[in-house]
Structure formats: structure tokens, C-alpha cells
Amino acid sequence: MLGSALWSGALLATAVGVHHHSLPMLYLGYGILGGMGWGFLYLTPVTSVMKWFPDKRGLATGIALSAFGAGAALAPSLIHALMDWFSIAPEFVGECVLTGGRVGECVDLSTLEDGSQVVAQNSPVGVPGTPVVVATEADIAKAVGTMGSEGPGAYAIGTGDTGVAKAMGTLAVVYGCLGAIGSRFMMIPHPEWCPDRHRGTEVVATTNAQLNSTTSSGPGSNANDSNNNFGLPASYVTANTTQFPLLWLSVFGNATGGLALLSSSKMMLTDIFAGVAPHIVTPAFCTGYVSALGVGMALGRFGWSAISDVIGRKSAYALFGLGVPIVGMAPYLCHTVVDIAGNGSLTTGEINVMPYLLTFYSGSVLAITFYGGIFSILPAYIADLFGQKHAGAIHGKALTAWAASAVAGPMGLAYLRSSSQEKSIQELLTTIHAHDATALERCFGCSIHDEATIEKLIDAKTLTIGKLMELAPPGTVDPTPFLYDSTCYVAAGLMSVAFVSNLAIRPLDLKMAMMEMQAKKIT
Questions:
Q1: Which helix or strand (DSSP H or E) is residue 109 part of?
Q2: 423 FRET partner, CA 20 to 30 A, in 88, 198, 256, 482?
Q3: What distance in Å separates the CA atoms of residue 15 and residue 32, rounded to the nearest whole number?
Q4: How do residues 390-406 score in pLDDT, each as one tens digit?
Q5: φ/ψ bin of 295: left (φ > 0), alpha (ψ from -120 to 50), beta (otherwise)
Q6: What is the pTM of this model?
């Protein structure tokens, strides 16, 4: 119930932050309150379901967490529908030189010191001083609802509504109600409860009895793996075992790679394949792709957890190493498609883009199943290694790897992409200047030598690769597909570290660990 209230409050705070353009409110809502609410809503059902089904931990947690992936499959369509419903088109000021308008008949723009643009005082179209944003053909193609319905040109800032704030507020109410209803059915079994087929077995009640009946034959083979009252405390596990840091690294590496794929795959699809096959990769196709990723995550959470009950948790984690070549080879696949398009093969019919598109589509969905499987198997992996009694507390500590990947991963990967973007923009500026020395002055009010102004224009998103491509000479290769190279390579490297870390995990001798605890009087 607390988690539902926190998550609902997080979405409401986020909606307020979006509406008032308040970054601190966004941090408070989606960051602090959202993280707390997510933690309560995620850990509570996992811990409970493992206690109800101690003999099938993997399958049980997989079923419970498949709802997490199912939500990711349904949410994109729901969110887009709400945004379309609430969105209001901004005021169209008119075409400008950048979008193909004729000089003297279109909006004349003036660039301010902070890099933003307004309608110039002597502009023949528009009200002078009106803050505007320029939308190109590529920007219009990505717009939702009625946004950009007038076509490329200058739009007045502060007019219209994206519908994001109202959509977030609606979701806050819906998710809050669903969570509150679900919390009423949450319960845990009696401490001495066990499944029917174990009722004939005497429940082990003391630590000494547990020591005598425990073997060290490895994960999933403990004699008391169905006993909810047996296990090592979280403080001992984190401070005195090598298995926990190795497991933490495995989760961190795989989670970072999965997040990189989640954050980049749709952009790679729209930036690369939409350009070479626009009749196939439509906005509806991209929305379906995001839903397919959610379905893949749900299937991964359910399927891989069930498989881990058969082949073992460590073996299942080892199979996730197949994500390394998938992520690492993504740039090569994209480069190949761009080369084909540049050579004109797609138009002549010599090579069909579908094999490359299907390879990218299926490979990324398969990799996302690994990402889902990481977290559905993790609770059972922990219980097998360290016992069930304190698995919830240990699971919470292990999920700090997920939190770390959610913070360090996107920041690091965003830095890599930003560095690649800045380099590409500088190369485009040089190309444009060599082709038309006055193009930058006409469209942005600066020259290629005015580095300070160019930096401000980039920071204000006034100067982007998409807008520069409108000024670039014919035959210029769009560098957008190459922005993801370093991101994919680093993500593949981290996933390789995760693969090696998992292989290094060895079964923990619980009997010896319990004896060591008794000797040191650790409780």
C-alpha cells in the first residue's frame, strides 16, 4: 500500500514538474518518490511469492515479475493514446529559411545570447520577439498527435500542449488504484508452513539441526532449500562472502547493457531504418517495436526463470552472455544498412532491407528477454546461494546494482553519445561552410568561427544534426547512425564483465558459513 501511494505520488509530482517546467520537481517525483515506490512495489511480491513456493522459486518469481514486463508492453500504447488525447497543437508562425522558406516571404529569425531564437524585428511574418522553435521534416515525423500538423517551420514556444503532464496525472490515478487493490491480497505464509509434498518432513527449527542437514553441493541442492527459516543474514553475506560482489557485478553489467539497449534501440530504429525504409518503419511500426520489447521482457521474466529451475541459476545467467555479440554487432549491422542505402542498392532492388531489419528487430527483442530474466532469476539465485530466510534483505542489497546501472549507465552512455554528437556536428559545420559560407549566418546568425555562439546553440538544441543536414550539400552522409557505436561497444564490454563474474561464482558452503557465524557470534 505504501509503495502504491509513493508511486502514485511520484507520477503526480512528475506531472506538476512537467506542467511548470520544474526540474527539481521532476527529481523529487520521478527520482526520489518514484525510486522508493518502485522498490516497495517490486520487492514485496517477490519475497512473498518465494515463501509460498519455495520448491519452485524461479517459476514463481518469473510469473510474478512477468507482470512487470507486461506493463512495459502495454504502457507505450496507453501513454501515446493519452498524449494524443490531451495534446494541443502549438501555434504555427510560418516557414523559415532553414525549412525551405523564401527570403523576404518567410519568418526571419534572430538568435539570442543564450542560443534560443525569436522572430526578428524586421521579419515580414510573425510577431517580433516571439520565442520560437524550428521543426524540420525529421522533427515533424517524430511528433505525436496534432503536434506539427502545419508542417516544417517555426512554432511559437509556450503555445499548445504535448499532453505529457495530463497523461502522467491520469496514470498516477490508475496505477495508484491498481496498486491499492493488489495490496489487499498480499500475505505471507506461517513461518513453519511448507508445500503439501513436504508436510511429512519435520520442520527444522534450530540452527544446529540446520547445520547437520545442510550440504554444500551448490545452488539449488541444499536439503533445506524449501525451509523459509534457514539462511545467512544479509550483513554476513555482503561483508564476508565473495559470491555477493561477483553476483553484484553480474547484475550491474547485464543491467547496464540492457538499459543501453532499451534507451538506444528505438532511436536506432527511427534514425537508421526509418530513413532507408520509410514505407516499412512508420511511427506505428516503431510503437509496435517498443511494445514488442515489453513483450520480450515479460516472456524473459517468465521463461528464463522457469528454465533456471531446470538448468540452474548460474547456467541461465551464463546464457545471457549471448547478449554480448547481439549488442556488440549492432553498429556493424547499422553501418551495413547505411552503406547499402548510400550506394542506392535499396532503390534498385539489388538488396532487400528486410533481412537486416528483421535481424535487428529479433536480436534486440531476444537481448531484452535476457534483461528481463536477470531480475526474475535473481531472487531464486540469492535464495539458492545464501538460503531463503534473509533472501529479501539480500535481494534489496543486490538491487543496488540495478540502481547503480540506472544512474551510472545512462550518464556514462549519454556522455559517449554526446561526445560523438559534438564531433559529428563540428564535421558537418565544416562541410556546410565549405559548400556555402553564408548558410550558418542566414539560418543561425553566426559564423563557423564563432565557437562560443555555436556552443550555446548546441546547448539550446537550436543547432542539431537534423537541422544541419537540411543545409548540407547533396550526398552528405547523415552521421546519426554512427552516434551509437561507442555506446554499444561499452555496453557489450560491461556485459562481458558480467558474464565472467557469473562464471566465477562458486557454491557457498552454508554449513561452514553457519559454523563460522557461530564461532564469531554473528547473528
A1: strand 109-111
A2: 256
A3: 14
A4: 777 888 888 888 888 87
A5: alpha
A6: 0.67
